[in-house]
Solute carrier family 15 member 2-like (Pundamilia nyererei), 697 residues
Amino acid sequence: MGKKIFGTNYPVSICFIVVNEFCERFSYYGMKALLTLYFLTYLKWDKDLSTAVYHAFSGLCYFTPILGAFIADSWLGKYKTIIYLSIVYVIGHVVKSVGAIPTVGSTELHIALSMSGLILIALGTGGIKPCVAAFGGDQFDEEHTTERQKFFSIFYMSINAGSFLSTIITPILRGDVKCFGGDCYALAFGVPAALMVVALVVFIAGSSLYKRTPPQGNVLWEVCNCIGFALKNRWNKSKHDPPKKHWLDWAEEKYSMRLIQEIKMVLRVLVLYIPLPMFWALFDQQGSRWTLQATRMNLAFVRPYLREMLNALLILVFVPIFDLIIYPLVRLCGLKITPLRKMAMGMVFAALAFGAATLVEVNVVKTVVNPAPAGKCLLQVVNLAKDDVSLKAPGTDLFLQSIKYLEDPPGYETVPLSNGELNLEVTVVNGGNFSATQMVEEKKAYSVIIYPDATGITYTLVEDHITKNEEGNPLLRFLNTQPEALNVTVGDNNFYMSSGYNVTHNKTVQRGEYTDVTCISNSGKTSKLNLGLLDFGACYTVILTEEAGKIVPHKIEDVKANNVHIAYQIPQYILITAGEVMFSITGLEFSYSQAPANMKSVLQAGWLLTVAFGNVIVLIVAEGAGLEQWIEFLLFACLLLGVCVIFSVMAHFYTYVDPEEMEKLYLENSVREEDDSDFKKKNNEIELNKTGKSTKM
């Protein structure tokens, strides 16, 4: 019997397992918290590719548990499997960190190293996933089921404690610490690698205290053979032999009834798991679609990657609240709480979370400028002529109203093109007009800048950047109306403008008040500019004019600032976390409690496999459907509610089993059969002595 903690029924060995899990989850979630932004800003991938690779990696992390379970239950045992695959895990982290060093090779090498590292990480984390939880459960004696249930709650809290701290620390290391002239992804990925080394050392340190269950041979292979034999026998003999109560009973002539009953137990649970991937399809979008939603919101208090820690923090708060308050209160009301009912309610809460995300998205997209459809472009007019002007484009009645001098355009208008040509007719209110034809690209956005010249008025067409910054920061450019070049410094960015209505490229600046910006002319004259607030998600054009001998800025908002505060995401996080507590923790313990002793890692792997298929669902919808984001959110919510109904019906017909009681029953039957066999042998001997003949068996 192993050592206990302070006279309780909790083994000391679980302390090492819980600390190991904390460090491993810090390692995993610390890396994963930056993954989407790493793809977008470092590897320069677009949103869809970043989302696809993110979910492909997440899915692989939950497909590989099958490999880990096979190795643990059939070959090495849980203890050695955890150690060997943790080493693979560490190597993956190191390779991933090296791939984030800008000075190491080309972009292609960075991508190759990053993908290789992620594959090794997926093999490591996925391989040990089904083993660590089951290994922790193995530390408890059979009679301590209550303590084991509490262990799974503590185990899950350690997961989220690691997640919580990592999602605070690693983004700070990336953004606030600068290395190689930019964000320090190498350091941010290196710290999780170090924590994985600590996790491995801590786990090995507890080696002398662990209760180890030896591998039972090639269990998974034997299960597959038994199922195959049953199906083959049923096909060959069902026509002339009497029917069996269960199709697996056709294997009883070759395999033991114990194995057949254990396979029945596992298959009943696995069938119940079929609807579960839809929950994970919603849950795992916190790190992809919800992160991207956050980049288009007002981030006055928090960066988009930091709100991922909210889920982990809420888990730490919700687990004791549910275990100590909510569940006991529900039982006092006379309602029976079963694991499957908890899981069904978890699905409902996740669907409500995506309903809340839909409402947020509907308001968020109001500040987003969508590209023009095929055969058209987006157009806005900036009037720098002293008089009011109007503009007409064939095929549209837009811009007919007078546009005042330095008026901030209300927004982009969609204008049809004629074979890629934009035809314009400009009229000055106080006299004068001209026509122009300009070749442009469809689906893009442009600003028509009308300004005076020596002959009257003329124009220039400037391509605009309408895509919001991936990290939510504002974009800024300058338009110089002066006859000499100007140089403006905003934060760490320098904008140089040649003379004559020249426009700079857009550059990303930090959100904030810019009331004392330095502007230096080519002749050496210095002016101080007050740009005011440059807000999250906006794209600004600042027109520099001269008034009373000074350079004066006039700010135009090409793309509106994000006006929905990120605090509006809190309700969806509260709902999804409540759903996670009821669904995930319960499912983890349910998978362990309903599994035979020699198949616990296999069933844990089956549980984790539902997460993998959930990510596959996201890949299919995100890449294949091409829906607007709010419609996609609503679709997921409706699908999960439908799946919840199916799951509830299946759960109603499920019969809970106690593998330990079945184990005792098998032993009793085995003893009884041995006693019967001994009795028959003795009886035969007596009869043989009397008659010289053996009783026919």
User: Anything to note?
Assistant: The chain has four domains: 1-217, 275-367+569-669, 371-464, 466-561. The first strand starts at residue 178 and ends at 179. The CA atoms of residues 95 and 117 lie 5 Å apart.
